[in-house]
From TrEMBL:
Family: Belongs to the SIP oxidoreductase family.
Boundaries of every FAD-binding FR-type domain copy: 13-136
Protein name stated in the entry: Siderophore-interacting protein
InterPro entries assigned: FAD-bd_FR_type, FNR_nucleotide-bd, Riboflavin_synthase-like_b-brl, SIP_FAD-bd, SIP_fam, SIP_rossman_dom
Native source organism of the sequence: Dyella caseinilytica
Pfam families reported for this sequence: FAD_binding_9 (PF08021), SIP (PF04954)
PANTHER family, alphabetized: FERRIC REDUCTASE, NADPH-DEPENDENT, NADPH-DEPENDENT FERRIC-CHELATE REDUCTASE
CDD domains: siderophore_interacting
Length: 265
């Protein structure tokens, strides 16, 4: 039997309109929003780091779903497109048809601004996920590395990790009050790293903490998500200085310092 065999599962793309049921600030920089609605019937997210495309109201208050044209996603002529951003499904209840999404509140951007002001009854659109990358569950240890944008995926992965797994988390956050309660049936340890005023793009707390980790016996899988440039630095370190096989690393740029959307695997 082949060890450490990952699997990619493709899903049929479904577009949905959902309603805000509740919005709550769970830490100073994280807003938790619960979405509901019959259109969530059949929603499927099979992996903790799945992404859905959230479609927010345009300046006219309309939800404009793009259609796939010859040049990629297109909107009807003369229509102001809706802002769209990728987010992790934090938790889904298939019985109640409720989806939880955690938003980092950072003071600017259409998603953060919308989430900070969200009220029950407001509606947005959701597309996807298009697919789920299923990480092999037979590694000796898992290391999860990420900033606050990665906390929803890290928290969900801990929730879903199998009993007996060994997990080490390096979590970088703006300040100590942004720590979240995390739980798992796995054996896990969390190292919290507070920036305390340092910008998330220029911090090196994760990089230094990663270098300080011991080289454990056995096979270790590394999952990394943060600002794009920092992710590339950490992936390069694991490959060139620790000799970690590329199949044992999943590294994604969740955001870019210049404000553009990004995603790299």
């Amino acid at each position: 039997m082949t060890r450490h065999e990952h699997q990619m599962v493709r899903h049929t793309l479904v577009r949905r309109t959902v309603e805000v049921l509740s919005a709550k600030r769970i830490t100073p920089h994280m807003q938790r929003i619960v979405f509901g609605g019959e259109e969530l019937r059949g929603f499927l997210s099979a992996s903790p780091d799945d992404h859905v495309k959230l479609v927010f109201p345009n300046p006219s208050g309309d939800l404009v779903f793009p259609t796939l044209g010859p040049n990629g996603p297109e909107c009807p002529p003369g229509v102001i497109p809706s802002p769209m951003r990728d987010y992790t499904p934090r938790e889904f209840d298939p019985v109640r048809h409720e989806l939880i999404v955690d938003f980092v509140i950072h003071g600017d951007g259409p998603a953060s601004t919308w989430a900070e002001r969200a009220k029950p009854g407001q509606r947005i659109g959701i597309g996807g996920p298009r697919g789920s990358f299923m990480i092999a569950n037979d590694f000796d240890r898992y290391v999860l590395v990420g900033d606050e944008t990665a906390l929803p995926a890290i928290g969900r992965r801990l929730d879903e990790m199998h009993a007996g797994a060994r997990v080490h988390v390096l979590a970088e956050i703006p300040e100590v009050t942004d720590r979240q309660p995390l739980g798992s049936q796995a054996q896990f340890h969390v190292t919290w790293l507070e920036r305390d005023g340092v910008d998330g793009a220029s911090s090196d707390l994760l990089e230094r903490a990663l270098r300080e980790l011991p080289e454990w016996p056995g096979d270790t899988f590394y999952w990394i998500a943060a600002e794009s440039r920092r992710v590339r630095t950490m992936r390069k370190y694991l490959a060139e200085e620790r000799g970690v096989p590329k199949e044992w690393v999943r590294a994604s740029g969740y955001w870019q310092a210049d404000g553009s959307e990004d995603g790299e695997d």
